[in-house]
Design a protein that fits this description.
Layout (H helix, E strand, L loop, with lengths): L12 H4 L26 H26 L4 H14 L10 H26 L7 H32 L4 E6 L3 H12 L5 E7 L15 E3 L4 H7 L4 E4 L6 H11 L5 E4 L12 E5 L2 E5 L8 H35 L5 E7 L5 E7 L23 H9 L6 H6 L4 E3 L6 H7 L15 E3 L14 H17 L2 H17 L5
Helix pairs in contact: 2-3, 2-5, 4-5, 4-14
């Protein structure tokens, strides 16, 4: 790698640095990276992130103080639970009003139902004042809706606090550059005005060349930045253009414009992309598990707590089903099958036996509608997903999660990983009892490659957008899907 002429770095610095311990201290290769933070231009986003959790907690406190005049310890605990389950708030500023109201009401009903269920199951519900809960049930969503639309009305004033409209240019008229410009133009709350594009390529090779403004070539950028007082520069150049990027950055040091690099997200499927710092060196995550760090702690704790409560509640049902399976047909009660788990490691999952066979070899035929191998009781168990209940034990063992990509038989994994690009990425997390694909209609037999591809697309979408709120939404929607009984054979 060649450093910029004024960097002051020796060309042989990499060779001098030792990873094997030959030198006590390696030469400094990078200046210490600044702490990653939310920029000044994202103040509106920062407020929106905290809006729902704070409104729900404050509305609870106000109701409690109005009725009882003090805030008991169990209300503080409930506040922490509510905040953790609703943080961060989803971005809704660009949604139409009717969709905002629908989402807020649905998510609140789901959250309140879950709180009541586990409050009743744990016996702690009796500690709470029924009047407080009843009033909070109505006040909370009304407060959320009111504060959201108040934020919309306040958005212009908040944007003015950020310094008014900033003029920007995009260097590189390609897919990601055009996508960025279009999103900024479509966002009514953006304070960034894209003046135009710069690119060295001919018009016939440019993306969307007729509708977007091409102001000049890349060598023209420094002069244009000075003459038109450009505030922001977005470099949307491929990583292979290293020399052009370094040369441009060197010339831009004579300006006061802020420079951002726009990675080519169209080159590969980005999973949980984020900036991070490793030993003072900035790095960019391209494909990462959503359950690293604090996310993993939240996911693991919620799995253990929910599984213990659910198993305590359904233990009588498990005994009844086990007895019925034993009496209805010969064979074991529990069907064990090898699947791929976290990081592609082999695990054994448990299900109530629903067939007259227990297949777990190199070739496994998926169950079809009217499959003769499925017992009459097994058909009922599969349709209602009651055969999956023993997997809560797998969750307590640490092999599975309540929500995640459904595990496939090893024989199917080995087949589909060769046919579907990105198939094994779904194994960056623990498999789940239910998943985003299953509540969106991808349940049951995948007799065509397109059906399996659609299921994998939902699995990867779950990895990109995971949150505890999404898990709760999937759990609630799973109940409805099971009641409908669609797609399970």
């Amino acid at each position: 790698m060649n450093y910029p002429p004024d960097s002051g770095r020796p060309r042989d610095a990499v060779q001098n640095a030792s990873l094997g311990g030959r030198h006590k201290k390696a030469p400094v290769m990078f200046r210490k990276a600044a702490r990653m933070s939310i920029g000044r231009g994202q103040l509106l986003n920062l407020i929106e992130i905290f809006l729902d959790p704070l409104v729900l907690v404050l509305s609870l406190w106000i109701v409690e103080l109005s009725i009882n005049g003090h805030l008991p310890p169990h209300e503080v605990v409930l506040s922490l639970v509510v905040f953790s389950l609703t943080f961060p708030s989803p971005a809704r500023m660009s949604y139409p009003p009717w969709r905002v109201i629908r989402y807020i009401v649905f998510e609140w009903l789901t959250l309140f139902a879950i709180l009541l269920f586990f409050g009743y199951a744990s016996g702690y519900l009796s500690h709470f004042d029924p009047d407080v809960l009843a009033i909070w049930f109505g006040v909370a969503p009304a407060s959320q809706i009111g504060m959201h639309f108040l934020l919309r009305l306040s958005a212009p004033a908040i944007l003015k606090l950020q310094g008014g409209t900033a003029k920007a240019i995009v260097v590189g008229m390609n897919d990601q550059g055009v996508e960025l410009a279009q999103r900024l133009a479509a966002d009514p709350y953006s304070n960034i005005d894209v003046v135009g594009f710069f690119d060295d390529r001919g018009g016939e090779r440019l993306v969307d060349g007729e509708r977007n403004t091409l102001l000049g070539t890349i060598p023209d950028v420094p002069r244009m930045v000075k003459n038109r007082q450009i505030d922001l520069i977005y470099l949307s150049l491929p990583m292979t253009s290293q020399q052009r990027i370094l040369s441009l950055l060197s010339e831009l040091r004579d300006t006061t414009a802020s420079v951002y690099f726009v990675p080519d997200t169209f080159v590969s499927d980005i999973i949980q992309a984020r900036m991070d710092v490793v030993c003072g060196v900035p790095v960019v995550a391209v494909c990462e598990s959503p359950f690293s760090g604090m996310g993993g702690m939240i996911k693991g704790a919620s799995d253990v707590v929910l599984s213990l409560l659910i198993l305590a509640l359904i233990s009588p049902l498990l005994l009844v089903i086990a007895l019925c399976v034993k009496l209805s047909s010969p064979g074991p009660v529990i069907f064990r099958q090898r699947r791929y788990g976290l990081d592609g490691n082999e695990i054994t999952i448990y299900k109530f036996r629903t067939m007259t066979v227990c297949e777990d070899g190199d070739s496994i035929v998926q169950a079809r509608e009217g499959d003769q191998r499925v017992t009459p009781l097994g058909a009922f168990l599969r349709r209602t997903s009651l055969d999956e209940l023993p997997q809560f034990v797998n969750v307590l063992q640490g092999r599975m999660s309540i929500v995640g990509p459904r595990p496939h038989a090893i024989a199917h994994n080995e087949m589909y990983r060769k046919l579907i690009e990105g198939y094994m990425v779904r194994h960056k997390v623990k498999p789940g009892i239910t998943g985003w694909a299953q509540v969106n209609g991808c349940r049951g037999e995948t007799e065509t490659l397109d059906k399996m591809k659609r299921r994998i697309e939902y699995d990867l979408d779950y990895l990109r957008n995971w949150s505890l709120r999404l898990d709760l939404h999937i759990i609630a929607k799973t109940v409805w899907v099971i009641l409908k009984g669609d797609g399970a054979y």
